[in-house]
Amino acid sequence: MISVESLSAGPLFGLPLSEMWFGLIFTLLATFLFLDGFDFGAGAIYGLLNTDREHEAVLAAVGPFWDGNEVWLVVFGGTLFAAFPAAYANLFSRHYLLMFGILGALILRGLAPEMYEQRHDERWQRAWSVAFVAGSVLAPFLLGVFAGNWLVGNESSVSLIGVVVGFTLTLLTVVSGAAFLRLKAPLDLPERVSTYGQFAVVGYLVAVVATLAILAVRLPSGLLTLLHPAIVVLVVTSIGLTAGYIVAMRRGESLLALGAAAVLTYGLIAVVGIIMYPAIDPATGATISETIVSTLPLNLMSIAAALLLPLVASYFVVLYSAFSGPISPEEAY
């Protein structure tokens, strides 16, 4: 029987809850970057398309999903705040201007399609198309800047590692977005969308190498940290997945390509988590054991998470099942 006394005595069932919540935070972040990532990538590719029909196809493809996908960003932030409140406070206050930039980009990305459909005026729609592309590119770029600064503990929001990680993440969203668009609108969009994805995945791999080179110099343990067996496996796997993605896109197997993009995304965030562990805030040197909440609320949150997260996941299963398959030719945003 679970009582207040038992919940206060120690971790639930003796589980390593600090480590589990640390892993959960990065899993939620990766989930957001993949699910909303292909929306960002679709928005970036939107700027490379020409006709109204192509633009409408992109908006129709992402329309049912993008606002739901953003839930994972809220869950990520809420989880970080709930489990590691001191790290949350330090991290977000240190980069509050960057946070406002991310929120502004997300608002612009969400507002632009709605405004685009309000008037069928060429100048009006061109302006909101630019806004849609800008929000779709800036959001992942600024998130990457945030992640890079978090990883190495930069106090300032502008840094070389932040910019490089920003480009890396932006290219990865284009990789996901191209596969998603070819899956959802194969007849409404030109074949060159597949080419954009292939170029992006090669650029992503180059950006990853550049990121690792900077980390080898920037991290206290340098190259030794990057030679962690799990990181080596993930990097080697990424090379194989890059080749697999290109082959899948050339063969028109968009679902396989999207799966490869998903593994690349989760692998990238796993590398970040492995490098950072056991620190949760490298800028201050604070570790997960030092910043985790006390035992009672931690146990209660763990029970709540075990009940609620499957419900959230079930909602997304229903959502993606309801809107599965390619969009119809007459479908609009």
From TrEMBL:
One term of GO molecular function: electron transfer activity
GO CC terms in record: cytochrome complex; plasma membrane
Bilayer topology: Multi-pass membrane protein
Cellular localization per UniProt: Cell membrane
Pfam families: Cyt_bd_oxida_II
One record GO biological process: aerobic electron transport chain
Record has Transmembrane as a keyword: yes
EC number: 1.10.3.-
Transmembrane parts of this sequence: 20-49, 70-89, 128-152, 158-181, 193-217, 223-248, 255-280, 300-323
Cell membrane as UniProt keyword: yes
UniProt name for this protein: Cytochrome d ubiquinol oxidase subunit II
